[in-house]
């Protein structure tokens, strides 16, 4: 399997552990060719076997094909649900009932989609659907090449409406718990 634009192995290991401990649905924003999706799907397989919703527009058809091939090779196709949309498009699908299973809330949310400040702020909307005690992980926190990620998260963490606390940082993978 070839993985590009992906989490580091140590971060994939952490996502595996979080998914293994997950007690409900897992949602990923930004899947690309599937390294992080597979890490979480394998973790889920070793744990509660909850589905992993992979949200990505897959604008590059080669990436979409690679994602499908990689998921298949890893033998986790049965657990992975592809949602081919930008995160805000998927949010609309949730709001108009196209993805009704989201109603029950998630136990693990991993955010690694668009890395601009405005996009991360939009993606933070999804935190409201994580169940109390559930986990939220962000990739590229404090990564020099995408300062908007940390700016949006830090602003959120210091705001009145904060709904999560930091529990771990693995390289640039920030792990929080929903409060
Ligand atoms: C860095 S890659 C994800 C890598 C993947 N998480 C991994 O570690 O294997 C970012 C992905 O986010 C997707 N993306 C960009 N904007 C997005 C958005 N608004 N919503 C969801 N996905 C988005 C891109 O298509 C791309 O595949």
Please specify the SSE layout and strand pairing.
Layout: H1 9-20, E1 26-29, H2 35-46, E2 52-56, H3 61-73, E3 80-84, H4 87-95, E4 106-111, H5 117-123, E5 130-138, H6 147-157, E6 164-170, E7 173-178
Parallel strand pairs: 1-2, 1-4, 2-3, 4-5
Antiparallel strand pairs: 5-7, 6-7
Helix pairs in contact: 1-2, 5-6
S-adenosylmethionine binds at residues 3, 5-7, 29-32, 35-36, 55-57, 59, 63, 86-87, 112-114, 119.
Key features of this structure:
alpha/beta, Rossmann fold, 7 strands, binds S-adenosylmethionine
Mind telling me the CATH class?
Alpha Beta
Strand order of the largest sheet: 3-2-1-4-5-7-6
CATH H-level superfamily title: Vaccinia Virus protein VP39
What helical percentage do the residues reach?
25-40%
Count of separate DSSP helical elements? 6
């Amino acid at each position: 399997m070839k993985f590009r634009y992906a989490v580091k192995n140590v971060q994939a290991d952490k996502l595996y552990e979080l998914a293994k401990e997950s007690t409900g649905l897992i949602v990923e924003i930004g899947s690309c060719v599937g390294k992080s999706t597979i890490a979480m799907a394998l973790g889920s397989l070793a744990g509660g076997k909850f589905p992993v919703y992979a949200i990505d527009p897959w604008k590059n058809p080669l990436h979409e094909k690679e994602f499908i091939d990689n998921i298949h090779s890893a033998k986790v196709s049965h657990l992975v649900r592809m949602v081919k949309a930008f995160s805000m498009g998927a949010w609309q699908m949730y709001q108009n009932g196209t993805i009704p299973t989201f109603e029950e809330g998630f136990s693990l949310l991993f955010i690694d989609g668009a890395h601009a400040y405005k996009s991360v702020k939009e993606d933070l909307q999804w935190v409201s659907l994580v169940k109390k005690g559930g986990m939220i992980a962000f990739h590229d926190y404090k990564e020099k090449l995408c300062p908007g990620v940390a700016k949006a998260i830090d602003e959120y963490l210091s705001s009145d409406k904060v709904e999560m606390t930091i529990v771990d940082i693995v390289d640039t993978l920030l792990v929080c718990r929903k409060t």
